[in-house]
From TrEMBL:
EC number: 1.1.1.302
Function text: Catalyzes an early step in riboflavin biosynthesis, the NADPH-dependent reduction of the ribose side chain of 2,5-diamino-6-ribosylamino-4(3H)-pyrimidinone 5'-phosphate, yielding 2,5-diamino-6-ribitylamino-4(3H)-pyrimidinone 5'-phosphate.
Membership in a protein family: Belongs to the HTP reductase family.
The protein, known as: 2,5-diamino-6-ribosylamino-4(3H)-pyrimidinone 5'-phosphate reductase
Key words of the record: NADP, Oxidoreductase, Riboflavin biosynthesis
Sequence ranges assigned to domain Bacterial bifunctional deaminase-reductase C-terminal in this UniProt record: 26-244
InterPro entries: DHFR-like_dom_sf, RibDG_C, Riboflavin_Biosynth_HTPR
Pathway: Cofactor biosynthesis; riboflavin biosynthesis
Origin species: Hypholoma sublateritium (strain FD-334 SS-4)
Record field: catalytic activity: 2,5-diamino-6-(1-D-ribitylamino)pyrimidin-4(3H)-one 5'-phosphate + NAD(+) = 2,5-diamino-6-(1-D-ribosylamino)pyrimidin-4(3H)-one 5'-phosphate + NADH + H(+); 2,5-diamino-6-(1-D-ribitylamino)pyrimidin-4(3H)-one 5'-phosphate + NADP(+) = 2,5-diamino-6-(1-D-ribosylamino)pyrimidin-4(3H)-one 5'-phosphate + NADPH + H(+)
GO molecular-function terms, A-Z: 5-amino-6-(5-phosphoribosylamino)uracil reductase activity
Biological process (GO), any one: riboflavin biosynthetic process
Length: 252
């Protein structure tokens, strides 16, 4: 990163980091880049580099300001991300991967082996299935820490780990600030649980088209009594061709 310090609006957006997080979860920042037509990836989840150079630098600074960075397994599979920014503070990479589909050859594990990334934590559901246990052993042998997240009830959709349990599991392991990068299903799940303290959205001046991947906020107006979940605008900044908007949550 060429700039010696983070963009100043990040400090204003993350002011709450100066106080301890709640006992049950870390401070949560949700951030992603989207097109003008609200897509975050191409058809079939193909990775799109939507952020221009300057807004990507902003995202990389944001990574250094959090204890851990979380992505869903589809993002890990499609993008094979690194989620780090050496030589700056290396956040803990966390992959939400109920069925342990993360390949042992992924960059997160290669970076850990090469000492350019921290040990990845892979969050999964408990299972006694022999193929699952084999995958678990292989991931641990490659350096991952596999953490079982308790399911809350039989109502949990198959393959979904409950967001409150994810957050509790991270908080009790010392994560005080968490940056959530996506993808679409993870964005929807975190918004649905109203656990996002800060939201930073990069809008790139491009149109992806209807085959692209977008996120859906899952609660309909009638279900929540016509009370729309709201965020307070903190700052808008033009970075290169992109518009970066930051928001803070407003308690319901
Ligand atoms: N533009 C941007 O800023 C970004 C774009 N992306 C893009 O997003 C795309 C992937 O999005 P998407 O396909 O929605 O996948 P996600 O990366 O959101 O992963 C979703 C998967 O995670 C697992 N999972 C477990 N628990 C939960 C939970 N509580 N909520 C949601 N998912 C859970 C499920 O798989 P399982 O059942 O196997 O556990 C689920 O299918 C990628 O193509 C990537 O390029 C990603 C990040 C940022
Ligand atoms: N900020 C931002 N802008 C984009 O255009 C993106 N596609 C993403 N994607 C996220 O960054 C990860 C890949 O980056 P690294 O390999 O870790 O440098 C990707 O997995 C998404 O989480 N972000």
């Amino acid at each position: 990163m060429a700039d010696p310090t983070p963009p100043t609006f990040l400090a204003a957006t993350l002011l709450h980091h100066s106080t301890p997080p709640p006992a049950t979860r870390p401070h949560v920042t949700l951030t992603f880049a989207q097109s003008l037509d609200a897509k975050i990836a191409g058809a079939q989840g193909r990775q799109l580099i939507l952020s221009g150079k300057q807004s990507m630098v902003m995202t990389h600074w944001l990574r250094t300001l959090h204890d851990a960075i979380l992505v869903g397994i589809n993002t890990a599979l499609n993008d094979d991300p690194q989620l780090n920014e050496p030589p700056h503070h290396l956040p803990r990479p966390v992959v939400v991967d109920a069925r342990l589909r993360l390949p042992v050859t992924c960059k997160l594990l290669r970076n850990f082996q090469g000492k350019t990334g921290r040990r990845p934590w892979v969050l999964c559901a408990a299972s006694l299935n022999s193929a699952f246990l084999e995958r678990k052993s292989a991931l641990e042998a490659a350096g991952a820490r596999v953490i079982e997240i308790p399911l809350q009830s039989d109502e949990q959709p198959e393959g979904r780990l409950p967001v409150p349990s994810i957050l509790h599991g991270l908080r009790e392991r010392g994560v005080n600030s968490l940056m959530v990068e996506g993808g679409a299903r993870i964005i929807a799940s975190f918004l649905a649980e109203s656990v996002v303290d800060a939201l930073i959205v990069t809008v790139a001046p491009v149109l992806v088209g209807e085959a692209g991947v977008g996120y859906q906020y899952p609660t309909s107006l009638s279900e929540n009594g016509d009370v729309l979940p709201k965020f307070k605008a903190i700052h808008t900044e033009t970075l290169g061709q992109d518009t970066v908007m930051s928001f803070a949550s407003i308690p319901w």
